[in-house]
Amino acid sequence: MVRLSKRMSELGICSRREADEWIVKGWVRVDGAVVSELGSRIRPEQSITVERAARNEQAQRVTFVLHKPIGYVSGQPEDDYPPAAALLTAANRWQEDDARIRFSPQQLRGLAPAGRLDIDSTGMLILTQDGRIARQLIGADSDIDKEYLVRVAYQTHEEDVRTHFPAALLDKLRHGLSLDDVPLKPAEVEWQNPEQLRFVLREGKKRQIRRMCELVGLRVTGLKRIRMGRIKLGNLPQGQWRYLRPDEQF
Fold first, then answer.
1. Among this protein's residues, is 141 annotated catalytic?
2. What pTM was computed for the model?
3. CB-facing half-sphere around the CA of 73: CA atoms within 13 A
């Protein structure tokens, strides 16, 4: 027997939080019977359906693609630094956003970042009301890759770093490092130009790229996330945002 909300999340129907909300509202049926008690357990093979009202509510939930500047934290305010969500205003909407969605402050309710981006990093940050998207990006079984451009220095070298950085250490970045005594998954790491590396990761430990670089003697001087799955940052200006369109998938 498994918790109904957990099973709904595993099946990709919604997030566990959404499931609990729908259960309380009487919007969830198991084998055709309404289940409205939180903590209810079912057998994995039982059939789960949800009322149309749940689907309608889910369809109204929005996802923002934000180009986060340095100096903003991904989640709650900390050490007097503002949250990235503070940039989600009508004035900061990208003029080239072609999503047919009208901005409303109600869209900021229940909004959560789907993946961290450090205060001293810039680039794509996803903030969403949709638990399915959050689970897809940061769930324990997520396999969505994230791409970064990372400017680095090595020892006393801040220019033409590629020439001075040993190839063996580049291979170490790709596979062979551990953080917090846990081996890291293989990563794609290659030189983008003489001072900048391109990283593609399929996991997201805290300050992972900076810590990886420290382990091989590199110093990160700039870090920008430019892609998550199939969604690219593109020409979205720093400090501005756009909606994730219904036809876009990570």
1. no
2. 0.83
3. 9
